[in-house]
């Protein structure tokens, strides 16, 4: 018979699986009955196609002996060079700030914390889930042009070509608008000792609701009342500065003074 075999990969790694294939062996006047392998590291096997791992780097002489149905045998040897250890994939991770960005706000994405246990990371590739072109770099900045939830992914590649991807969902909200403080009072020219009615019901919030009202009735910096409407009496003639502060459901405030 004629012994022949191939193996893949051609330069295997330590502890990496290698396929040895002797199916190209032939017998011109019969058939091959047995395939015997010696891997040069103290291990043997039988079969036309076998798998083997080498536990150390170096050059090994692999021997295949085929025996045909008449008992005749033929042997072939090949040397195989086993390289370094099996590569470990990197680990992708990233953070971003601010945690709750708004439309058009610059968001900082930081993937510098990604690691590779047996080498180094050679590239960082970002996808922002909004149809924009992916960008590269360990730290990048991005703006989202509309509200919603975006799936952002970071793919890192190490110096051996292995990859890993980290994914996070980011909620992007509208830019919050401050409320508008407005108030009226009657009579507009009260006499000393006359009750004055203050009304802040015309105050509004363009994108939410007003949740609190605070009145400073004498300009001393101290709030005196906390309702949208109220009555007050000024017993002495003169000028009183009245300040209204409203706060909306997003915590934004506005002040009006008369």
Automatic annotation (TrEMBL):
UniProt keyword Cell division present: no
Domain annotation PKD: ranges: 1-82, 90-172, 179-258
One GO BP: calcium ion transport
PROSITE patterns listed in its UniProt record: PKD (PS50093)
Topological relation to the membrane, as annotated: Multi-pass membrane protein
Alphabetical list of SUPFAM superfamilies matching this protein: PKD domain
Keywords: Membrane, Repeat, Transmembrane, Transmembrane helix
GO molecular function, one term: monoatomic cation channel activity
GO cellular component: plasma membrane
Record SMART domains: PKD (SM00089)
Location(s), subcellular: Membrane
Principal localisation: membrane
Identification of the protein by name: PKD domain-containing protein
Organism (species): marine sediment metagenome
């Amino acid at each position: 018979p004629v012994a022949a075999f191939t193996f893949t990969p051609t330069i295997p790694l330590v502890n990496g699986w290698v396929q040895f294939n002797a199916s190209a062996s032939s017998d011109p006047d019969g058939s091959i009955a047995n395939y015997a392998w010696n891997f040069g590291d103290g291990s043997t096997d039988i079969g036309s196609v076998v798998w083997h791992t080498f536990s150390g780097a170096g050059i090994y002489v692999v021997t295949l002996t085929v025996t045909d149905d008449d008992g005749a045998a033929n042997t072939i040897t090949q040397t195989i060079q086993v390289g370094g250890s099996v590569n470990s994939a990197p680990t992708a991770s990233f953070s971003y700030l601010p945690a709750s960005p708004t439309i058009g706000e610059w968001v900082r994405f930081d993937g510098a914390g990604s690691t590779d246990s047996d080498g180094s990371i050679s590239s960082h590739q970002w996808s922002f889930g909004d149809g924009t072109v992916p960008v590269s770099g360990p730290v990048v900045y991005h703006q989202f042009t509309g509200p919603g939830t975006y799936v952002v992914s970071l793919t890192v590649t190490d110096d051996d070509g292995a990859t890993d991807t980290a994914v996070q969902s980011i909620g992007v909200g509208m830019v919050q608008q401050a409320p508008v403080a407005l108030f009226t009072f009657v009579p507009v020219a009260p006499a000393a000792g006359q009750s004055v009615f203050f009304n802040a019901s015309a105050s509004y919030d363009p994108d939410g609701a007003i949740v609190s009202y605070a009145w400073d009735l004498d300009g001393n910096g101290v709030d005196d009342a906390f309702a949208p409407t109220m009555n007050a009496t000024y017993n002495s003639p003169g000028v009183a500065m009245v300040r209204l502060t409203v706060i909306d459901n997003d915590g934004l405030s506005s002040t009006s003074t008369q």
